[in-house]
Specification:
By secondary structure, this protein is α+β, with helices and mostly antiparallel strands. It is built from four helices and six strands.
Length: about 120
């Protein structure tokens, strides 16, 4: 099974000079190390992933699912990603997305972005 977390640190994400929150790369990497996640969950710090209007974008991927997250604005959001990674490394498929991230979910439909919180 393949589990990965891709965190954007591209043209907009993490750019405080553009009014976006910093992406806590050092803290994420330290958390991956402290929780011994490297072998189980791949962490990638990426260039631009797209939907720049969602700034501070991340993708949580398993073999059966791709969860897009945007507008990540605090360490609490990134810590919830770490917690998802820990649970996923232990359980594999079927790890529940932490509640704090549910409002940050979106889907890409071509060039359009749909926030899941707006659907329900």
């Amino acid at each position: 099974m393949s589990i990965s977390v891709i965190v954007c640190n591209g043209c907009c994400c993490g750019r405080v000079e553009k009014g976006h929150n910093e992406v806590p790369i050092d803290e994420l990497e330290a958390s991956w190390e402290a929780n011994q996640l490297r072998e189980e969950v791949k962490l990638t710090i990426s260039n631009c992933l797209g939907p720049c209007n969602m700034h501070n974008v991340s993708i949580l991927k398993t073999d059966s699912e791709k969860i897009w997250l945007g507008e990540l604005s605090s360490w609490d959001h990134y810590d919830a990603i770490v917690q998802w990674a820990i649970e996923s490394s232990e359980k594999g498929e079927g790890s529940k997305l932490p509640q704090i991230l549910e409002d940050r979910r979106f889907v890409r439909l071509g060039e359009s972005i749909v926030r899941l919180k707006d659907l329900g």
